[in-house]
Design brief:
eight-stranded mixed β-sheet, protease, secreted, 2 domains, FN3_sf, four-stranded mixed β-sheet, hydrolase, M28_fam, binds zinc ion
Amino acid sequence: MKYHFSIALLLFSLFIFSQTDQKIYDIIEAVSAERIEKDIQTLVNFGTRNTFSDTISETRGIGAARRWIKSEFESISKNCNNCLNVFYQKDFVTKEGNKRVPHDAWIVNVVAIQKGIKYPNRYIIMSGDIDSRGSDTMEFTKDAPGANDNASGMAGTIEAARVLSQYKFENSIIYVGLSGEEQGLFGGGGLAKYAKEQNWDIIGILNNDMIGNIKGVDGVIDNRTFRIFSEPVPANETERQRSLRRFYGGEVDGISRQLARYVHKRTKVYMPEMNPMMIYRLDRFGRGGHHRPFNDLGFAGIRIMEAHENYTQQHQDIREEDGIKYGDVIEHVNFDYAKKLTAVNAINLACLAWAPPAPKTVAIGGIVEPSAKLKWNKVEGAVGYKIYWRDTTSPTWDNSRYVENTTEFTLNGIVIDNSLFGVAAVGDNGHESVVKFPNKILR
Ligand SMILES: [Zn+2]
C-alpha cells in the first residue's frame, strides 16, 4: 500500500512539474484546416455580412450568415449530448446619434455556452466576428466577402467549439460570433453589458480578429508569428488604484496583461514552433477590436491576430487599380495558419477551463527586509500554488516556486524592490490559473 501510494505521489509530482498534459497535444492535433477553409468559404458565400445588410434572404447578408452560424453551433451540440446552450443575444441600434449607422437595426450575436462542471458561473470566452465591410462601412449592399476580416476568426471559433465540445471542463467556455464590429464594436459592447447583468464571473475574452493572413503589405511572409494585444492596466481602475501604483508598481501588470502572458506561455510550452509576440498596447495604433468593450467594463481581454497585415485586402471593395488587386477575398487566406491560431485559442481555453480560480487577494510585504513575503487566500479546488517573480524589465514570469499546504510564503534572499511578483493556483490535474498580481500590502 505504502509503495503504491509513493508511486502515485511520484506520478502526480512528475505531472505537476513536467507541466504538460497529453490532452492539450490531442486538442492541437484535432483542429482541422480543412473544416476552417470550408467554413470561411461558407461565410464568404453570403456575399456581404455587413451588419446593416439583408436579414431576410436565405443566401445573402448578415441574417443568413447568423442563422447558419447558429445552426452550426446547434449541430456541434447534437454531437456532444447537447453540451452547448445556443442562443441569440441582441441589442437595438438607431441611426440617430450614430454616425456610422445607416439605418436602425438589431445587432445580433450568436452565443454558444459549454457549461463547466465545477465552476459553472466562471466563463472564458473565445470570439470572432460575424460581420464584414467594404471600402465604405455605410455601404451595405455591395459584395464584402470579409474572408480574413473576420470570417477567419469566426471559423476558428466554430472549429474550437467542435474540438473542445468533446471534453468536459470545470469552468464554462463561451464561443461567440459578434456583430456590428465595423461600425462601433456594438456586438462586443452588448455582450459585455449582458455578462455584467447576468453576474457572469469572466476569466477573460480571447478576441480573434484576422487570423489568416501570412503575407504582409510589406512583403514579409511569416506563418509562425502572431500578435497578442493587451492593455497595461484596467480602463476602469479607480483614482486610488492609480495613485497607489506610483509607490507599489504594476504599470504593466493589469488583468489583461496577465491573460496575455498566460497565452504566451502556454503557446511556448505546447506549440514551440510558434512565435507569439506580446504587444504592450490595447490594440493596433488608433484602431479597435471587440475585446475593448469587455476591457471598458473591467473584464480581462486580449486580441489574438496575425503578425503581418495586408491593407489592400481589408476594408476594401473588390477591384483592380494600377495593377493592384483589392479586396478581402478567400484566395489570400492561409488555412494552415488560421488552424495554428485556432489551436492557440483552443489550448488556452482548455487550460483555463481546467484550472481553479486564481486567488482573489494576494498580499505582499518585505519593505526594508532581505526577503519578499506573500500571503493569499485559500482557493477551493487548488492543490497548490505557484509563486512567480521576474525582473522589473522582463515581459514574462521567468521564475517560479511551487508550494503546497500553505497560503503564505517567504522568498528568502529575493528583495522586493528588484522584482515583480504574483501567485497562481494549481489544480489536481496540473492546470493553473492566470497569475494574480498583488492587490494588498502586508505590514
Ligand atoms: Zn475590420
